[in-house]
Structures are given as structure tokens and as C-alpha cells.
# Entry
Amino acid sequence: MRTLIAICAILAPARAVRAVDFERDIRPIFATACYECHGPKKQRSDFRLDQKTAALKGGDNGIAVVPGKSGDSALIRRVTASDESRMPPKGPPLTAGQIALLRTWIDQGAKWPEYTVSASEKPHWAYEPLGKPKVPVAFHGQNPIDAFVSAKLAEKGLSASPPAERRALIRRVCFDLVGLPPTPEEIREFLADDSPHAFERVVDRLLASPHYGERWARHWMDVAHFAETHGNDQDRPRPNAWPYRDYLIRSFNDDKPYARFAAEQIAGDVLFPDDPQATVALGFLAAGPWDESSLRDIVAGTTDNLIAQVLDRDDMLTTVMTTFVSATVNCARCHNHKFDPISQQDYYALQAVFAGVDRAERPFDADVKLHVKRQALSARKAALERGLPESVLLSNAVQGRVAAWEQTARSHHAEWTVLTPSAFSAASGSKATRQADGSLLFTGPTPETDTYFISTRIPTSGVTAVRLEVLSDPSLPRGGPGRQDNGNLHLSEFMLLAWPGPGLPPTPLKIKQASADFNQSGWTIQHALDGNKKTAWGIYPEVGRKHEAVFEFAKPLPAPGAITFVLAQLHGERHLIGRPRLSCSTTTNASQLRPLPDAVATALAVAPERRSPAQRAELARFVLRLKLEEELAALPAPSLVYAGAHDFKPDGSFKPTPKPKPVHVLRRGDLASPMELSRPGTLACVDGLESRFKLADEDDEGARRAALARWIVDPRNVLTWRSIVNRVWHYHFGRGIVDTPNDFGKMGSIPSHPELLDWLAADFRDSGGSLKRLHRLIVTSETYRQASRNNDTFAKIDSDNRYLWRMNHTRLDAEQLHDAVLQISGKLDRTMGGPSVKQFIQSPGIHVTPVVDYVRFNVDDPASYRRSVYRFLFRTLPDPFMEALDGPDASQQAPVRSESVTALQALAMLNNKFMVRQAEHLAQRLERECGTLPARIERLLELALGREGKPGEIEALAAHAAKFGLANVCRVVLNSNEFMFVP
# Structure
């Protein structure tokens, strides 16, 4: 019988084996049993199981998974082992069922889906094509918003609340659109208007108000994490960040089409070169924090410096992609995105987009003609720096310009008159020997610090500059020019002292500017003039050759006279002057005073007919650069904005690169493990759009940003249009249709009203991207205008009001509250724009991170009365009052603000100096406007709450005022829920 059963079992058809799904069956096993040692945080034996490519590649112990062959796969051997090699090494072993799933998965080919949306699977809702859903038929004639919301409410067994009381409605819409409460006069006018379009007229007036831009710029600043300091450990101020804030206000007030608004902030300088405000818009790219210590103060090219560059670009691309397309791309820095169809290759393609842009001061001109001229000159200069073809440099036209320049500049060397030292002294007792060329060769002791005084006479009047040369000499270490063993020179102080006559004190000569032929990174000639003993003019590693610096006087010397040339070495160890020479010049041509590069000086020393093509090209480059610099210098001084920039003044180790840096995909995000080179591009998961950019010039960093901007604002980019309408909806209702505005991925929220979201997105896109039109559509809907009263029955079905059966009750945010108090007290300064006001006291002295005091600031200072959008914003030193009211941390994006109700807020509202003083100002206003105490209380309620007093209310408040003073009553009312919340 047993034999028969066995034979039947063999002859019976095999039971169908179900297909193993990786996401459902395999990834959970890896996550619970393997990721602790072979996941994103740790990779023992250089093996990881959270990425397809890495898992199939294997680790130090070879290939772990052989698709189709579970018997040859080391993974199966390790999970079934009975000795110490068994995996996982800790905890319970895998069950027989889990091992069977792994075997079957491998035998079925180890199918591991890529992180892209295939044609056979339904994409995540955010990536689905964007159509324009039909408005529900049963609700035709309504505002389309109400039609979609009503249909959803009916589906859930809910219904809308009745309309809000008119006083509540005008208060709501005023705070929403302009961030300020309605005045009593505006309320009375609205209540007296019985026409059916009374509310629409209020909305139109608010949208036309310049205060609309101030309110909505503040929202955008939250998302861009804008502040006016660097943050991190060196929170240095950015004095020119504010023009970007003014750009936002202007753009919202002008109702700039959203596609242009978005594109300008990514690549305005490239796409709209004739518009100076498009350059200011790049403040968006620089709005976030910047690691000054790692990007400026350490040696360029070190590991820490390179890591800081990657992190800086990460902040830029994260801000761009979360703001405009609500995609958490930064989650793919070390591996493919765990949940969304975003690959690590996509992430580094975006890193490549920003590989040539940094954060720095950028010039712009408000005058359009001047802006266009400066832009043209700057573009020519950039093209020259990138390298003009030799055919252009050697053309007859360019060589003719070289000849003309050379004819006037031939005396460049001859016009320098060597000054013969009449006396010298050194604190160390060093000796100096005059050389035939007029220099002094110093020998003798080499102490750690020393100062040399070299006296001479200026031979003529009208001297405009002196030149300091530090020459090489065979007697110096490594030939000089300094006397340190490595030939280095660090000149810590340079000073010229003139003697007007015998017995009179010396007078320091004022220097207009200084230039040098070479500056060690972070140690420029300017550091020799700053009076700081810790800084110096460094010329290392340019050892073994001479160097020169030229110092131009603020005004020519009027007559011959005695002069002392002071060289001080107060920095480092034994970096002493070896062989200096001093010359003077009477030329007034600033370009001729500057030191010539060695290659140019060498070419000039050769007769024109004997110069090589390389020498002729070198001279051409120099002359063209000189001409462009002169033309740029002749223009009026530009304004500055702290913005994304690729051409800026070097600062220490922080300096621009002529072309974008190469970006590699980094294995596990490790800079030491570069893989393939990345091409500039973006997400591959948006259907219908190319994910890698085709650029005519790969080295043109602006073209990279322009390509990304075009991709983002493309009408086919479904993420962009869904993102912005959801963001606007969020600010009107306190919650988005998707309540994670920066994350439309699988870990974010799903839409509460998906058809409404798509209708709004398509309508907004197809109607020209007018934000004011979108606002008007939303706030004139019945959904927006309904009351916020609770309904216990509906609350049991939809406790958090996702389906909008009532209006949400929201607390005033920090800026609304601050500005409302100023308006009510009569102290609001409505001046728009300009540099930010500092509502704190800054301690004197030089500090990397300023020392500021908000407590001792005079709250009656005029700066205290400006709207809060114009406050100077610190990252690490926020205003305690605004922070208590949930003002955002500018080091992070704030797509959704916290809305807490705490005892600390009540204490701040009652006791903060600003609130106490404004309550006093409000009391004074009431006393000026009203004669009796009851009338003053009535006026207070009208100003602060927008309503008349209730029975018994005026009497109670008047009694309190009689006992504690009217200002105290004002504080009570301003701290009430009715004032703090918008119904």
C-alpha cells in the first residue's frame, strides 16, 4: 500500500507553484532578518540586500544570489546552515516557510522590480496622467469646487455646514489674503452691502492690495527656508538676502504666471537674461543654510570640503524638487528610493544639474538697460574664461587690439622707478645687503616673528603707487622668495609711513586698492592690510620665483619726501622676508599698475615678430580680459543679492569653478566610492518627459538649470501642477487636499478629493497659471464660506474634517498675530520693501556668529513697527516671541507649520515687552478716540474682535479696567481665543 501511494504521488501532476512577489513576500524577510547587518546603515562583508544592483553583485564572499539556481546561491546556504555561519547570526533562524519562499523566488529568476513605473502596473496616483475630470453632473451650476466637495460629502453620508456669519467671513478672508484683520470701517461697509456680489468685491479688493504679496511671500519663504544668515556653526549674516524677499512680494502682487515664477527661481538668469529681477529670483537657490566653515575656511579639495559641497547641492536640489514637484528625491542619495520610483541615478543626475552653482553675492541692476549691458559684458568675460578658440585669439582683429594696447603699455616696466633704501632696521638684528638691482638681501637670524623698517625717499611728486617685489635668490632656501625652509613667504603687515618734515610724526598713507600676481588660497594681498596679526599675504606653493604686489594710493603724493616701508612677519613661524625691492610709479592708468602674469611678461619680452602662436594667444587673452574688466569697472556700482551664482568674488577656499564639477553616482552615498559619471537630468518616472538633458554644451552650468526649469514647468509635468494648487489649498483650509504638501510619494498622504485636485491642477495650468484667479475660485466657494461649528454626528464619521463638512478653525500664525496687534494699536508701518529691520540689539565687536539680544531691544524703535515679513531672520538666533508662536526654524523647510496651543504662548502674549507696549499704545489710541470708558471698551472689541460688545461684557471689562487699567484690559482681549483664532 505504501509503495502504491508513493507511485501515485510521483505520477500525479505537480501542484501549481504561485509566483513569488518580491515586494509582498521577499522584501519583508530581508527587512526583518537581514537589513540590520546588510541594509542602508551597515553593510558587513561589503554586502547589502536593500538594493537590487548591490544584492545581485554580491560582497566580499562572492555572489549571494544566482537567479534561477537556488542550489548555487550562497544566500540559501547561509540561511540553512547549522553552524556559526548561519544567517541571521542573532535571533531566531528563518522559518521553513520563509526559506521556501526564498528558494522559490530565486528559482523563478530572482525577479526584483526596478524603481520605475512599468507599463503593466498602475502608477502611484501622483504620476498618473493629468486630465480634467468632469464636474459631477448633479451639482452643475455650482462653483466646481463645491460640486466635487458636495459629491464626496454625499458619498460619505455627510453634508456641508451653513454659511459663516458675515463678520466671521470677512475676518477669515482678510487674514487669509493679506494677513491683517479687517478694520471696523471695512466690516461695516461689507455688512451694509446687500448685493449678491458683495463678498466678491471684498475678495477683489484684497487681491489688488499690495499687502497680498507680503502675506503670500511669507508662505513661500517657509517652503524655501529663507533666512538672512548662513546657519550651521558660523551663522554669519547675509546683508543682501532681502532683495529676494522683495522679488517674491512683487511677483505675487503682479500675479506673475506660475510657470514663469517657478522657472525664474531656478534659471532666471539664463531664460530671461534681459530681466534683472530674474537674476534676483535666484535667491531661491541660496535661501537655505550654508556651511561656511567647511566650504570657505578649510582647504579646498579636502574630504570634508568635498562632502560639504555634496550636502550643499543636496539642499539645493531637495528644495527645488520638494517645492515644485513635491518629490522627496533626497531619499535616494545612498540607495534607490525605498518607496517611490526614484533611482539613485536620478538623484545624482540632479546633483549634476547644480554642480556648477554656489551661493554667493550676485550683482544686478534695477535699470534694465544697465542690466543688459552688464550681463553682456559678463557673458563675454565668462566665454573668455571658458576658453575662446585659438582661431579667434589669433585673428587679425584681436591681434590688432593687442598691438594697440602694447604700444601704450610698452613702458609698463620702465615707468617703475626703483627706490634706493637710505636706511633699514630689523628687530631681530638681521643684516641687509644692497644689491645691484636696488633690492635688499636679508641674512642673519630667523626668529618666529620680525619687523623690518626700510627708509627711502620718493623722488618726485604725483606718485600714484608703489610696488613691492619679493625676489628669488640662490642663497635663499629653495631659491626663495622667503626664508622659510620651504621657500614660503607670509607677509603679515604692510604699511607706508610718510614724514612731512623733521620732528613731525609719521602719517600712514591711505591705500585705495592692492593687487598681487599670486595669492595663496585664503591668504590674499588684502590680508596684509587688514591689521589682523593672524592673517597674511601667502605665496606658497609658488616658491622659487619672484612675486610682486602693487599698492595704489587713494590720492597721488603731492611732493617728494621721506617714506618708510614697513614689513612685518607676525604670522606663522620663520616666514621671513628674503629679498625685497621697492619701486614707485606716477602712471594714472590703473591697468598698467597691476602686476603682469608671468606668461604675459615673458611674451612682452619677446619681439612681436618672434612670438610663438601660444604667446600671441596668451597676450590676446590678457588684453581681452583687461578690456572687459575696464568696461565693467566703468559701470555704476551694481546692487547685490545673495543668490545662486557661478561667477563670484573668491573668498578663502570658496571660489567659482570655470565649469561644473564632475558628479559620480556614489556607492552608498560614500564620496570614497564613486561609480559611473552622472549626466545632468531629473526624474525618470514622469511620463512623457525626458529624464536626461541633451545639452549643446555640457560645460554650460546655466544650460543645465534651464533644462531642469523647462522640465518642471512643462505642461506635461503632472507633479508640478498638482503640487502648487495643493499648496495654495493648504494655506486656505489649514490642510491640503494632500496633507503632505512636500511629499506626494507613497509615504505621503493620499488625496482626500483626488478628482478635485486634478480638476484644479488642470484648470490652473490651462488658464495661464494665475495664482490670484486660483485664490478667487477657492475663497468664493461655498466650501470656503461655510461655518466652522462642530457637528457631533459628522465628527463621528470624519473626526478630522478631511471631507470638509465644515470650515477648519485655525489659530493666527506668528506673523498674522504680530501684524494684527500693530494695526489695532495704530502703530503699523506699511512701508514696503528695502533692507530687513533688525528687531534686536547686536553686540559690538567682530563675531562670526553675531551676539544679539532681543530682550533689550527698544520695542518703540521704528523698526519694531514694520510688518513681520521685513524682520531680519536668523537661523540659530530666532526671535523668542515669534518662536513661541510656532514661527518656523529656517534651517528646515516648513511646508506645514506647527499649530500648538501652549501655556508658553499665553505667557508670551501677556508678558512679552512687545505685547505689553502695544497694549499701552492701544489704550492710548482708545483714549484719544473715545471719551468714556464704556465707549473705549466698545471700540476695543470693535478693533480687536470685529464685533460689538455682548450684554454684560462691556461692564465686566470696564470694571477690570477701573481696577487694573485700560492697557491691562487690552492685553486680556489680545490674549483671548476669539482674537487668537480665525473662525
Notes: Residues 1-16, 115-120 have pLDDT under 50 and may be disordered. The longest strand covers residues 547-557. Residues 11-107 form one domain.
